[in-house]
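Narrative of activities, Objective 1.

The group set out to show that a structural description can be obtained from nothing but a protein's sequence at a throughput compatible with the screening campaign. Below is one input-output pair from the validation batch, recorded exactly as produced.
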Amino acid sequence: MQALQFWRTVVADRPGLLDAFIGCLETHGIRYCVIGGQGVNAYVEPLVSLDLDVVVAAEQMEDLERLLGTTFDLQRFPHSLNVSLSGTDLRIQIQTDPRYAPFVARATGREVLGLTLPVADIDDLLQGKIWAVEDATRRPSKRQKDLADIGRLIEAYPGLRGRVPPEILNRLYS
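Output recorded for this entry:
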C-alpha cells in the first residue's frame, strides 16, 4: 500500500479534505509549507499522525481564510486556524503564530504522505518543535510528542543537537 493510500485509510478521509485543502492552496497561489509532525516525517522515518500542520504566507492569510470559509468548517484559536470537514479524522491546523511566517520562504519540495509538498527547512522544523516543547500552555501529551520529534530529528541529523537547549536535551536523555 502506498503512503498516501495508507494515510487516507488511517484518517478515514472519505470527503477528501486533504485533496480539497491542497487544491485550494494551489489553485489560488497560496504560499505555504508543512510543519509539525508531518514536516518531521519528511526528513526521518515517518510516524502515523492524524494532523497536518501548515504555515501560510502571512500576507495571504486573510484571503485564505475567506476562501476556506466557503468550503470548510473553520475554528479560530489564539495561534491557529483549524480546518475540517465532517466525515474525516484528518485535522488540518494552520499555524498563525508570526514566528513561523519566515518558514514559508525557506521551504523546499519534499515527500509527505506520498505527495510532494513544500516542507519547512529542517532547522525551522527543529525550532518550531523547540518552541512547542517550551510552551507551558500546551497539553503535556502534545509536548511529549514534540520532544520525541526533536529526538527523531537529532538522531537522524546529529549536527542539529547543538541547536537544542540543554534543558530539552536533559529531558530527552534523562
